[in-house]
Design goal:
This protein has 333 residues and is an alpha/beta fold. It is built from eleven helices and 13 strands. The chain binds nicotinamide-adenine-dinucleotide (NAD) and thymidine-5'-diphospho-beta-D-xylose.
């Protein structure tokens, strides 16, 4: 197991959950590299021991800084990204810079230092499925991304594959389904609806809400990544999921009723252009090859715990809420 791990994007949603997970479950030393964009939150790393976790404020596109940090670590787990589809439809450029050039910059550094690299990606690289399609995404599904976000992530995956083949970089890739849990930015579906209810606004459902997402708890994503880092085969891709398919309308109704509201107390708003219909992950390879299993299988319980986290941590999300909703209002969403 790597002793010193560089976690990029460690002040974001999934990256911060991974850092907390590493501190709880391992004895490794963590360095976070984060640009603290609107999505990075220093408070997400509060309470972590200073002798285990240090934070560097910087950009994954800064080649000198990345080279120095990679040189001091045994492994890199690359979470940093522009991550929100809606933002990518209005201003794609930062997605190309961070997601593509940032990944290139890290790959060049791990190539020079011969450092183990794990690349965090998304199931959205595979495009979408019909609602009644019996198949799910596997590691051999052809890439067919729909949005500027997912195409930039697909590009970054391709760079990793090329650096493995051409330069023998010791890399693995994981493509995970939709995460939920604590510390997710209020622009994303589940936290947006929970915090709308908490501030007295109505939740907002895009279109008819029949789109299906395959939900996994962020801690299960973390345990899968750690397993791949420890035992994954170099050059391989692993899909991460937890059999959590739900349509958006059902998820919203669950949030409303769990929070004591009538299940129809929400607005339908304009749909996302090019909105992917359904994602679904077949994670057989992760189970059979690496023996991984998810721990959070009760979605209703996971949603209740997430609602409680947002209730108890208003100071964490309130500063971002007004600006996020102002942006959505401009877009009619
Ligand atoms: P997030 O937006 O919550 O966090 C991204 C973090 O990256 C932030 O802390 C931000 O400050 C940092 N960052 C952005 N640009 C940077 C740059 N140029 N240099 C350094 N740091 C930078 O995102 P998230 O939802 O936690 O997603 C993390 C990763 O997981 C992404 O690679 C995303 O594609 C992937 N992923 C997310 C999901 C999901 O459901 N959210 C699912 C599968 C995969
Ligand atoms: O207010 C909303 N109303 C709504 O109906 C928002 C913000 C979203 N939605 C819908 C759109 C999607 O069908 O909910 C679904 C989930 O939306 P997002 O939270 O924006 O996630 P999604 O677009 O599915 O992408 C997420 O999962 C894959 C992450 O943001 C990506 O980073 C990850 O790669």
């Amino acid at each position: 197991m790597a002793r010193r791990i560089l976690v990029t994007g460690g002040a974001g949603f999934i990256g911060s959950n991974f850092v907390h997970y590493l501190v709880r479950e391992t004895d490794c030393i963590v360095t976070v590299l984060d640009k603290f964009t609107y999505a990075g939150n220093a408070a997400s790393l509060d309470g972590l021991p200073a002798d285990r976790v240090s934070v560097v404020h910087g950009d994954v596109c800064d080649a000198d800084l990345v080279d120095q940090l990679v040189g001091r670590n045994d492994a890199v787990v690359h979470y940093a990204a522009e991550s929100h589809n809606d933002n990518s439809l209005h201003d794609p450029r930062p997605f190309l810079d961070t997601n593509i050039v940032g990944t290139y910059t890290l790959l060049e550094a791990v190539r020079r230092h011969e450092t183990r690299y794990h690349h965090i990606s998304t199931d959205e690289v595979y495009g979408d499925l019909e609602l009644d399609d019996p198949t799910r995404f596997t590691e051999t599904t052809p890439y067919a991304p729909s949005s500027p976000y997912s195409s930039s992530k697909a590009s970054s995956d391709m760079l990793v594959r090329a650096w493995v083949r051409s330069f023998d970089v010791r890399a693995t890739i994981s493509n995970c389904s939709n995460n939920y849990g604590p510390r997710q930015h209020v622009e994303k579906f589940i936290p947006r609806q929970i915090t709308n209810i908490l501030v007295g606004d109505r939740p907002k459902l895009y279109g008819a809400g029949l789109n299906v997402r395959d939900w996994i708890h962020a801690d299960d994503h973390s345990s899968a990544v750690l397993r791949i880092l420890e035992a994954g085969r170099i050059g391989e891709t692993y899909l991460i999921g937890a059999d959590g398919e739900e349509n958006n309308k059902e998820v919203l109704e669950l949030i409303l009723t769990t929070m004591g509201k009538p299940s129809d107390e929400y607005d339908h708003v304009v749909d996302r252009p090019g909105h992917d219909l359904r994602y679904a992950i077949d994670w057989t390879k992760l189970r059979t090859e690496l023996g991984w299993q998810p721990s959070f299988q009760d979605f209703e319980h996971g949603i209740s715990a997430t609602i409680e986290w947002y209730r108890a941590n208003v100071a964490w999300w309130e500063p971002q809420k007004r600006a996020t909703e102002a942006r959505y209002r401009e877009q009619g969403q």
